[in-house]
Design goal:
Number of strands: 0
Helix content: 55-70%
Number of helices: 10
Distance between the termini: 69 Å
Length: 216
């Protein structure tokens, strides 16, 4: 008889297991049945903790956020631009740690209020810099949506860092589009060097916020 005691089944254990499985099977393969099999329980046991898959995705996104901010204290000396730059680079890094991480995060609802502390600090920083509350919200939301959208598209090509899907051969694309030379050359700008493209795009967004709201 196996007398080894298993950890109790709770929301955190299910979410942790789901995040681990996500890198293997992706969002489409992440079924409650597959998670239950990984936990060595029957699928109905999961419904005691999550009423459906979206509820589980909400908890997974929340756990991703907890891991992202753990051990990453806010610097009170940050300018508004530095804070937005750091937080969005950190978000991209966190999302790329998981296959389909950006899709899991997109549209999910946090199950706790852990994000409120950082949100409050950011809004306090931005309003002290001269933004109204509405402008501060718009600035943070716009940069967040830029990052989320960027990573969703990035992971469509590279599901995980250093892993590339079939069908995104730049040379083959250029040959197929040879009658459209500028479009053919653009492939190298669209589908490679995501680090540089993300950083440049984020700076464009930050410059736009600065110009729109008269910030330095």
């Amino acid at each position: 008889m196996n007398t080894e005691r298993r950890a109790p089944l709770d929301r955190k254990r299910v979410a942790d297991t789901a995040l681990g499985l996500l890198n293997e099977v992706g969002l489409e393969g992440l079924t409650l049945r597959a998670i239950a099999r990984e936990l060595d329980v029957k699928a109905p046991a999961l419904y005691w903790h999550f009423k459906d898959k979206q509820a589980l995705l909400d908890e997974m996104a929340t756990e991703m956020y907890r891991r992202m901010v753990a051990g990453a204290p806010l610097d009170p000396e940050d300018t508004w631009r530095e804070r937005l730059r750091k937080s969005n680079h950190g978000l991209r890094t966190a999302l790329r740690d998981y296959r389909d991480g950006a899709r899991v995060f997109s549209g999910s609802r946090f199950t706790g209020i852990e994000h409120a502390e950082q949100m409050e600090d950011n809004l306090r920083l931005f309003t002290a810099a001269g933004l109204t509350l509405a402008q501060a919200v718009r600035a943070t939301t716009t940069t967040y949506l830029y990052t989320l959208g960027f990573v969703i598209e990035e992971q469509g090509v590279e599901p995980l860092p250093d892993e590339r899907r079939e069908g995104f051969d730049i040379g083959e694309r250029a040959r197929m589009m040879s009658a459209f030379p500028l479009s053919a050359q653009a492939g190298a700008e669209i589908f490679t060097d995501y680090d540089r493209h993300f950083e440049e795009g984020l700076e464009v967004v930050l410059d736009g916020i600065s110009a729109r709201y008269g910030l330095r």
